[in-house]
Amino acid sequence: MFIGWAITHIEKEATFVSFSRRMRPETAEMVRREAEELADRAKLLAHHDQHTTPEDGLVGYKWTFAFGATPFEAIMPIGPHARDTAARIDAGKPRMPA
Predict the structure, then answer these.
(1) Helices and strands (DSSP H and E) totals, the chain
(2) What pTM was estimated for this model as a whole?
């Protein structure tokens, strides 16, 4: 429900970021640690705000971050990209002499 709300309010009150990339497990671990550090910083800043700002000056914000190795082939089969298919076709053609 929250993600749907965020998507419909992009560029107003919300941000939605979603992407998929292949990476080494070591890189994923580094990104995971950085996400945890960002969450810790946001919690600390919010705690400070709650102690220094009147209640009517505060706005509730929700953060959702899910990150993990994903078996893409099992979730959504992805066929070859058109450029890869074209490259295979071109590779099988005889080359013209220079």
Answers:
(1) 4, 0
(2) 0.62
